[in-house]
Amino acid sequence: MDRDPMRRILFLAVLILAEHVLLAQQTGGALSGTVTDSAAGGPLAGVSVFLNNTSHGTTTDARGAFRLDIPRGTYQLVFSAIGYATLVIEVNGSNLPPLLHLLLHPKATELTAVTVEPYDKHGWAKWGKYFLENFIGTGENAADCRLKNHDVLRFYYSRRTNRLSVTATEPLRIENNALGYNLTYQLEGFKADFGNKMVQYFGYPYFQPMTATKADREKGWEFKRKQAYAGSMLHFMRSLWAGRTISEGFLVQKEVTGRNEEKRRVKILYRPDFQKPGSFSMDTLHYFWDVLRQPDIITWKDVVVPDSILTVGADSTRELFFPSPIIVLYGVREKSSGGELKTSGLQLVTPRPLKVEENGSYYPPQELVDTGYWAISEKIANLLPVDYGLNN
Predict the structure, then answer these.
(1) What digits encode the pLDDT tens for the residues 262-301?
(2) Which of 99, 147, 222, 227 is the most buried (most CB within 10 A)?
(3) What is the pLDDT of residues 181-231, one digit of tens each?
(4) 311 and 208 within one domain
(5) How many C-beta neighbours within 10 Å does residue 128 have?
(6) At what angle do helices 261-269 and 282-292 cross, to 10 degrees?
(7) Which of 336, 333, 311 has its CA nearest to residue 321?
(8) Which of residues 40, 69, 104 is at a domain's end?
(9) Domain count of the chain?
(10) Beta 145-147 vs 163-168: how paired, if at all?
(11) What SS3 class is residue 333?
């Protein structure tokens, strides 16, 4: 029997408080604030406020006020309004400010932009198909996607540089019937370098799940989402953060260039001028001859230990860094059973670490360039929100 009831009551109070704090850390919190026009000074209504690449969003009311629930983790909070420059700030669901007061700055008018560099008024007819293939993607899911307002796109082509750039006067509205999402995409830039055969685009997507009228439609969307997730960049980043890349089917490699040690070894073993005929079997001799025809300097692939490219800070933050390009294979286990092997490449634009979150997001996203399978698959048609499959 407890002889000190007050001590027991105090213990229970502390336990309840600890549980409350833990729950808050797991689920995040609510963020409130106001948005004001920097030029006119008045409140801005109808501003889209959302967490980048998620399904969490809202809009400001007539007073320019908003309130948004923020899940645990770090996110880019995006403020987007037609005629204003996009504002992006970083927020953490476990450490939110009490109130935000933000200013949106008007964009330069389209007339000013045309004076500097006129856009091609027939750009959609010339470049629309190319844009859709490289932005929406190709394949089965892309066939079920529709860009609903292509008229807001502006195409600029330079013959001198052989480059195409595309901007948008307002957010793109995309209907993805394959995965069951309506997307609002704040396009910040699309660039195609035809000389180097490189395409890059950057922006802020906001997902709104569609409502299925039939149960089998919902099941179809979930099946397609699981297909899109398997082997995706989102899948890789989550498994990397959790230390499960190998168990989830990924293998990371890098190309290494160096001296051909096997050729050096064979030269020591095989010296025909000083060895008697019959010293080696014909199979061995054919192997020696093949090796001796190889160059002295060769390139091969080495396995990269995930811990060597991902560092964990004292506060459990993760940073991804690799000085030279890496190769990411997915489906290694399935390959042994006749499955498909997906090979992708990653390289950093500038030699600085990327911050990786538990949900699979990484910052800044424009600093990472993908090649191979991901260069084809990581398009809007296959894009999933970073809160996909999470219980936040």
Answers:
(1) 999 999 999 887 777 878 889 999 999 999 999 999 888 9
(2) 147
(3) 999 999 999 999 999 888 889 999 999 999 988 888 999 999 999 999 999
(4) no
(5) 16
(6) 130
(7) 311
(8) 104
(9) 4
(10) unpaired
(11) helix
The whole model's pTM is what?
A: 0.80
Distance between CA atoms of 141 and 137, rounded to whole angstroms? Answer: 8
Q: Which residue has the tokens 């600085």?
A: 352
Question: In b/e form, how buried is each residue of 94-111, taking b as 16+ CB within 10 angstroms?
Answer: bebeeebebebeeeeeee
Q: What is the mean pLDDT of the chain?
A: 87
Residue-range definition of the domain harbouring residue 38: 27-104
DSSP 194-222: TTTTEEEEEEEEEEEEPPPSSHHHHHHHH
Say how many Å lie between the first and final Cα of the chain, rounded. 41
Q: Are 70 and 31 spatial neighbours (Cβ–Cβ below 8 Å)?
A: yes
State whether 244 and 335 are in the same domain: yes
* Number of neighbours of residue 48 by Cβ within 10 angstroms: 20
Q: What residue type is 274 in one-letter code?
A: F
- Length of the chain equals 392
- Rounded to whole angstroms, the Cα distance separating 47 from 58 reads 8
